[in-house]
Design goal:
Blueprint (H helix, E strand, L loop, with lengths): L1 E7 L3 E8 L2 E9 L2 H4 L9 H14 L9 E5 L10 E3 L2 H10 L8 H10 L7 E5 L27 H14 L8 E7 L3 E7 L2 E6 L16 H10 L2 H9 L3 H6 L4 H9 L3 H22 L8 E6 L5 H11 L5 E5 L3 H13 L6 E2 L4
């Protein structure tokens, strides 16, 4: 069984080649600002990224005609169920022309289809656990202002994968257990998985600040700031220039920790607040299950930090044992999901808009 997995990021394309149960080749291909400067939107990069993927395949002797499946990270679709979806014309049209959120993951489905077209009709083009997986309970959707609904948007692919992995390794049944998963990276997402469903989450625009995103801000001050800046500038502040970067001038947690160790007391307070807010998010979600949580899982790149892990464990360890799954597990999650579809263990769903 041969599967190609594609995970487009803002400045890189991750690709892996999976054969009979394991990843044989894997690469994160970086894209320079110069290479991307002429593309106004991520979706405009289709040909550029497709050609890079084809070069990767040629370099490693991967014949597209021999692929059983090509699976991409799913993008900003309308709320959808968890699991696999077969890429169809309706999905591609939505990602190219309808979605209101420009995000590099929107390229995942389109690139999977582009590579499939290089192969044969039997090759499956899939996405798995897209960003918009929605298993919220109704009470979790209420925002506090009629007309605005809380959305399930976050690192669903990685969070569901590590939740199921930890449940399995800890002797728990994912479909019976309750786990809180904190994905800590450029943006933070925290989710609670209860009896096999991700029933609530805190996204990077409403919860703790991250290395480069603001998280939730005091609204009355943000309103005033909106009158001083354009929408584009506000989005830049929230997504690219907020969080630790706004205080330290860098989003590199390792550099920040080195400066704290060197005696930067002001930055230490900010970093303590970074950990403090994540702990508050985890604690808040524990109330969804009345405090009955089996495991807390820390994942994402920042979970490599011993300082962050120690600080969070100290604050939330009373809720449940803390398990570390540092880094991202998205490539293996994509590959395993596609494998289940190819083997007939899971049925790919059909995407329909409206």
């Amino acid at each position: 069984m041969k599967i190609l997995a594609i995970n487009p990021g803002s400045t890189s394309t991750k690709v892996s080649y999976y054969v009979d149960g394991e990843i044989i080749e894997e690469q994160s291909i970086s894209h320079t600002a110069e290479e991307l400067k002429d593309f106004q939107r991520p979706i405009d990069q289709i040909d550029f990224r497709r050609d890079i993927l084809l070069s990767f395949m040629e370099e490693h002797g991967i014949d597209p005609k021999e692929l059983d499946a090509v699976v991409g990270r799913g993008g900003i679709l309308p709320p959808v169920a968890a699991g696999a979806f077969e890429v169809n014309d309706e999905m591609i049209h939505y990602l190219k022309h309808v979605t209101k959120v420009e995000h590099p993951s929107n390229l995942g489905a389109v690139l999977a289809d582009e590579i499939k077209r290089q192969g044969n009709e039997k090759t499956l083009a899939l996405i798995y656990d897209p960003v918009s997986v929605d298993q919220f309970e109704d009470v979790a959707r209420v925002s506090g202002l009629k007309g605005i609904e809380r959305k399930s948007i976050g690192h669903a692919l990685n969070m569901r994968a590590v939740a199921m992995k930890v449940a399995r390794e800890e002797g728990l049944n994912y479909n019976d257990a309750t786990l809180i998963v904190a994905h800590l990276g450029g943006g933070n997402s925290i989710s609670i998985h209860h009896k096999g469903k991700m029933v609530d989450s805190i996204s990077d625009d409403e919860g703790p600040f991250s290395t480069e995103r603001t998280g939730g801000l005091p609204l009355k001050y943000v309103i005033a700031l909106c009158y001083e800046n354009s929408e584009k500038e506000m989005m830049r502040l929230y997504k690219r220039e907020g969080g630790l970067k706004s205080y330290a001038g860098t989003s590199d947690a390792r550099e920040i920790e080195a400066r704290i160790d060197g005696g930067d007391e002001e930055l230490k307070v900010v970093y303590d607040a970074f950990i403090y807010q994540i702990a508050k998010g985890i604690g808040g979600l524990a109330t969804v299950a009345n405090g009955q949580v089996d495991r807390i899982v820390l994942t994402g790149g920042v979970a490599h930090s011993k300082r962050v892990v120690s600080g969070l464990t100290e604050r939330v360890g009373f809720i449940a044992p803390v398990v570390i799954e540092a880094g991202e597990h998205e490539m293996i999650a994509l590959s395993k999901g596609a494998e289940r579809v190819v083997l007939g263990q899971e049925t790919a769903q059909k995407f329909q808009y409206k």
